[in-house]
Amino acid sequence: MRGHALWEMMSGAAQGSRWGLKGFEDLGGGLTTVFQLENGVDLSSGHLMEGGRLFGRQAYVGLARADVGALTFGRQYDSLVEYLAPLTANGNWGGFLFEHPYDNDNTDNAFRLNNAVQFNSANFGEFRVGATYAFSNNPGQISTNNAQSVGASYTVGGLTLGTAYLNVTNPGANALGAVTTGRVKGPDPRSAWPTRDAPARAPVSLAGPGLDVENDTRDRVVVGGRRKELDLGERYETESDYHERCRRCDAVDVFHGYLLLMV
User: Fold this and answer.
1) Which of its termini does the chain have fewer beta carbons within 10 Å around, N or C?
2) Contact call for residues 179 and 186 (beta carbons, < 8 A)
3) Residue 114: what are its φ and ψ, rounded to 5°?
């Protein structure tokens, strides 16, 4: 009995392959219109990701002012993705291979919010804050399949602290609601209070988050009650590149992680 090597072509292991359009127009007086249309694509087969949507990753339009922030409308990420995910292994360099079980904190972008109104502030000193509300589009039952999310970050020197909250009520209850993935990737209801800290803009980064997810009930695998996780990690990264066509591009990425899950 002999072993053999297996080869597999995978599209977007660390970060999903994507294509899109992003733009802005100066309206004068410091006000700018912004938009982003972005879809995911499987480069192995050419299939569209996110359920086959044309612009399934993001599709929004809004107004922005450099000294205030941006107000956007459409299909967008929640505040966990905006303020917390960049400080996690799976939301930064590890991709879905490092996501928490079932991505129950959505830091790996398991779903987006439809019908979302979102505000992300400019930097006020060391602080930045944001909030998101996604409508259910369910007449007479506005509390069914809606979502609320808030987040904040604090950056000083090479240290960044982030915290966020997300609540989704009855995901998948209707086809046009805030979350259409159902309970496989969306707990019912879903609430998360993660917090994370990590040095930013430094060659070495450390992160030690805490996560608390309540009432995490799923199809097939049913888990009730409260889930707690502790995730520690470290990363060393260095790279150099120059000239227009990158005549020299060197990169070294070493990482180590530890995950403790208590159910």
Assistant:
1) N
2) yes
3) -85, 160
Say how many C-beta atoms besides its own lie within 10 A of residue 254's C-beta.
Answer: 9
Burial (Cβ within 10 Å: 0-12, 13-18, ≥19) of residue 241: exposed
CB 176 within 8 A of CB 116: no
What letters, b where the CB count within 10 A reaches 16 and e where it falls short, cover 80-118?
bbbbbbbbbbbbbbbbeebbbbbbbbbbbbbbbbbbbbb
Q: Is 172 helix (H, G, I), strand (E, B) or coil?
A: coil
If we measure between CA atoms, which residue out of 235, 234, 221 comes closest to residue 263?
Answer: 221
Please report, for the chain, the start and end positions of each structural domain, with discontinuous segments joined by +: 77-262
pLDDT at 60: 96
Closest residue by Cα to residue 152 from 78, 64, 79, 67:
79
Report yes or no: 179 and 188 within 8 Å, Cβ to Cβ. no
Q: Which of 21-35, 151-165, 180-194 has the lowest mean pLDDT?
A: 180-194
- 8 A C-beta contact, residue 63 and residue 31: yes
Tell me the pLDDT band of 210, cut-offs 50, 70 and 90.
low
Q: How many CB atoms lie within 10 A of CB 24?
A: 12
Q: How many residues does the chain have?
A: 263
> Would the pTM of this model clear 0.70, i.e. be above it?
no
Q: Which position has the higher pLDDT, 20 or 243?
A: 20
Taking each continuous run of H as one helix and of E as one strand, the counts in the chain are 1, 14
What residues contact residue 160 under an 8 Å CB cut-off, 6+ apart?
Answer: 87, 153, 154, 197, 198, 199, 200
pLDDT at residue 109 tops 90: no
What is the distance of C-alpha 29 from the center of its chain? 32
Using an 8 Å Cβ cutoff, are 158 and 202 in contact?
A: yes
Q: How far apart are CA 71 and CA 238, in angstroms?
A: 35
